[in-house]
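Colleagues,

For the teaching module next term, I've prepared a clean inverse folding example: a structure given as tokens, and then the sequence designed for it. I'd like students to try predicting residues themselves before seeing the answer, so please don't circulate the second half yet.
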């Protein structure tokens, strides 16, 4: 099964991965691209949605309430911002420039409050060490009430790995492991850059590798899923997780788990 797709920019909403495709049972993912003068309204009677501004400037209003202005030059220049929209609520988006928004959807019956997530609310953490160090921004984390979605961004410096040691979240075996499917949207800087993604299971019944380019989208229904940026190119990916139990409990590949154990020593040596 080819789990890799490429988004070709076009105006309006473009579904990239539909629910039920590529082994995904919960997540639907698409891109909304608007120009100044266009508008977009989104709502659903049975889905929750997360909107992440990738580039541009817009105003957003939930259920006709307060208008909030969001701005981001691009994913490499500014911190993220976005919206969590529960089922039954309505979001109005008015672009003030050409803009691009990632749209993440999953089924929901949870009555949760809508949230506008400004850059000041986004949490930052540095993870890993040496050439598997990366920067992570948590946009919709477990502190935000939601049915199943968890959303954030990861930035790999040139040549660096993420999801290292490789981890999976395939089985409902808490507290050791949670069952969460995932989707990645990639951006590269400069845009002509590349990276690589591997997805594999313990028995290698799934063992795929993909060349990642700007606007690549990858579905991860199961398996370990490490990513590396090509030399000289910064790599970004938006990650969208969803599970029936909204718990983050990844399981590291035992063959490579030693990486995490040595991180404190490596960081101390490198200062």
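(Answer key — instructors only)
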């Amino acid at each position: 099964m080819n789990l890799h797709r490429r988004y070709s920019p076009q105006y309006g909403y473009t579904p990239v991965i539909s629910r039920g495709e590529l082994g995904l049972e919960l997540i639907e993912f698409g891109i909304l691209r608007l120009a100044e003068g266009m508008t977009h309204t989104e709502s659903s009677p049975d889905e929750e949605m997360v909107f992440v501004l990738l580039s541009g400037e817009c105003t957003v209003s939930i259920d006709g309430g307060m208008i909030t202005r969001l701005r981001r030059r691009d994913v490499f220049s500014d911190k993220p911002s976005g919206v969590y929209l529960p089922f039954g609520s309505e979001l109005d988006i008015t672009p003030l420039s050409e803009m691009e928004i990632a749209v993440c959807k999953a089924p929901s019956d949870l009555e949760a409050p809508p949230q506008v997530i400004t850059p000041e609310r986004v949490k930052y953490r540095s993870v890993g060490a040496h050439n598997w160090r990366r920067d992570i921004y948590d946009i919709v984390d477990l502190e935000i009430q939601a049915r199943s979605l968890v959303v954030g961004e990861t930035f790999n410096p040139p040549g660096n790995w993420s999801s290292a040691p490789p981890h999976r979240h395939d089985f409902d075996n808490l507290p050791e492991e949670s069952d969460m499917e995932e989707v990645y949207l990639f951006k590269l800087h400069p845009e002509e850059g590349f990276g690589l993604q591997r997805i594999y299971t313990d028995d290698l019944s799934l063992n795929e590798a993909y060349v990642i380019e700007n606007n690549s989208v990858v579905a991860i229904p199961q398996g370990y899923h490490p990513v590396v940026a090509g030399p000289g190119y910064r790599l970004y990916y938006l990650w969208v997780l969803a599970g029936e139990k909204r718990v983050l409990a990844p399981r590291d590949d035992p063959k490579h788990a030693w990486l995490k154990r040595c991180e404190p020593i490596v960081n101390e040596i490198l200062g």
